[in-house]
Amino acid sequence: MNSNNRATILIVDDEERNVKLLEALLHADGHATLSASKGRDVLALAVAEQPDLILLDIMMPDMDGFETVARLKADPRTQRVPVIMVTALDDRESKLRALEAGAEEFLSKPIDRADLRVRVRNLLRLKEFGDFLANHNRILDEQVKERTAQLEEAYRDTVFTLVRAAEHKDEETGHHVRRISHYCRLLAQAMDLSTDFQHTIYLASPMHDVGKIGIPDHVLLKPGGFTPEEWSIMKTHSALGASILASGTSPYTRMGAEIALNHHEHWDGSGYPNGLQGAAIPLTARIMQICDVYDALRSRRPYKAPIAHARTVEIITQGDGRTRPEHFDPAVLACFVRQAERFAAIYDQHVDE
């Protein structure tokens, strides 16, 4: 209904005299009118003009009122517009058929002015209330989305604060965790995983190595290889990370804990900390694993120079003794190969300085 509370009513009838009569009656009650003579014209007109009510004749030559109202109610853009069927038919079967198609009310010809006024008034009130509820729900939805975005931004800040605390003890940089987020989301998209999964792994994956905050500096920052005892200590970062995140209740910390614990497991069962094999390893960790290996190979470390993209892909797909293709979920590995050039682009965009 427009701002001056003047309703717009669409009259649909193939007989001009019927249209003129209804226009005169409705104008006398202060309503604006539109008119159409064909059912097919109604569909476009109702979308374009968004009337508050439609008076629809059943008997029309091209598309009868039954089909017209069914199409109006099937279109989300017009389904909330109430329809009064105007008919000379008085049989019960026709009325039931119209109700099933979605009509809200009936008027029988010849039109009774008092009957018309009451039915139009009632349905316009119903439409106005429906519009109010729809607008109210839209405002609430916008407020919820805004608040959700604020909470998510606060959560993201908390995550990266936690990650930066771990980074102060490690050689990895903020660029590494940003790249990891993008790699994981890329693979999730390419594997046709849900939008929620893609979004959650984007925010959860940076926490994969948060457990390193609990590893002693003399082990974590050692430039050479580890002794067996040091390697045993280093491997505890997976369980430590999961323990740090275990008390979280958000989907991001839950997934983060799952990734932290399992991202060093191998498809062939040769990984740690629990020697999980195959599908027993959570999919989140299987995705994270290959992303982490790619970035670790590409990046400079105290104990190694950075490796070029082509050689990194070769190591992952063919092996070099330490890294072997059987470490990876075959489906994730195949997806990585298809997306390898996009991995390179992500690395170049967020390269360490």
Unreliable runs: none
Q: What's the CATH class of the largest domain, please?
A: Mainly Alpha
C-alpha Rg, in Å? 33 Å
How many structural domains in the coordinates? Answer: 2
How are strands sequenced across the largest beta sheet?
2-1-3-4-5
Largest sheet: 5 strands, parallel
The ordered H/E elements are EHEHEHEHEHHHHHHHHHHH
Q: Per CATH, what is the topology of the largest domain?
A: Hypothetical protein af1432
Structural class: alpha/beta
The overall pLDDT average reads: 86
Number of strands: 5
Shape: elongated
Q: Can you identify the CATH superfamily of the largest domain?
A: Hypothetical protein af1432
Count the DSSP helices.
15
Spatial gap, N to C terminus? 59 Å
Architecture of the largest domain in CATH? Orthogonal Bundle
Question: What share of the residues lie within helices?
Answer: 55-70%
Provide the β-strand percentage band. 5-15%
Structure write-up:
The chain is of the alpha/beta class and 353 residues long. The protein has 2 domains: 8-140, Rossmann fold; 168-349, Hypothetical protein af1432. The chain is built from 15 helices and 5 strands. The chain has helices at 16-28, 39-49, 65-74, 92-101, 113-167, 174-190, 195-204, 217-220, 228-235, 237-245, 251-262, 283-298, 309-318, 330-338, 340-349; strands at residues 8-12, 32-36, 53-57, 83-87, 105-108. It has a 5-stranded parallel beta sheet, sandwiched between helices. Helix 3 links the parallel strand 3 and strand 4 (83-87). Helix 6 packs antiparallel against helix 15 and helix 7 (195-204) packs across helix 11. The longest helix has 55 residues, at 113-167. The radius of gyration is 33 Å and the shape is elongated. The two termini are 59 Å apart. The model has no long low-confidence stretch (mean pLDDT 86).
